[in-house]
Amino acid sequence: MTDQPAAPKKTCSHLSSCELFPKFAMKAALKVWQSYYCEAQFESCARYKLALEGRPVPQTLLPNGKELAPQLIPWLGMKAREA
Amino acid sequence: MSAASYWPWWAGAAALGAITVGFWIAVRRPLGVTGVLARFVNLREEVEAERKDAALSDEAALTAALVAATRESFGDAMPPSLTPLPMPAVRLTGTRPRLAAHALFLGGIVAGGLASRLLRGGLAAGSGPGDAYARIVCGDWRACAVLLLGGALVGFGTTLAGGCSSGHGLFGCARLQPGSLVATASFFGAAVGVSLVLKGGL
Questions:
Q1: For the whole model, what pTM was predicted?
Q2: pLDDT of amino acid A76
């Protein structure tokens, strides 16, 4: 039996313009988004779908379609700086 | 409008080249006029997206909110570290410019066109669709209807192709993007074919 070469990963075509991708790619704690969406199920990414329609994609929209709660952000930011 | 009142072709080529390269150096994003125009067609959604982005201007707060959302979505299986990882091998574009910047950009196109005409024979010389257009298509009120229909078709086509003659033709082809090369060949090929049919050359 011969080893088959691994098929190249099909990644999202909107990586270069996605404002969240650099954050997912460069933080270990967020890498799971990249593995789960950007490099695998990008067709199901809410950000990809909006971009494909030519509609604006806010930074608050997560790939799973949920929104970052704006009211949490200042409080979380303060906690992050304290840590 | 006589051919003598047009700007020389090389001046236009030099200006477009300088704008394309200058835009990339200054903004780090592809230059596309219809993409900019589309933002104003979707104005309500764009304003809403800009309002949400404004709440995330603090990088640390955004990261913390993302970590919290990650934990909520994927549980505690993820690594807890916030250690920076190497930069991905993807050529990233800059962040999306604000709506006001793009409004200025569109205003600049109109102002530049007017200035160009004023410097080359005045506005009267450029009014109407032109002799060549009237000869090939039509010259009366129908010209406006045809132009309107053509504009709608261009809007449909550029949305479908994700860019227009500036985004794909100027910018994408200059960067040898395969999609832009195919798109430009398609729409210029179709344009040449249609004009030959209209002229009775085929």
A1: 0.69
A2: 46
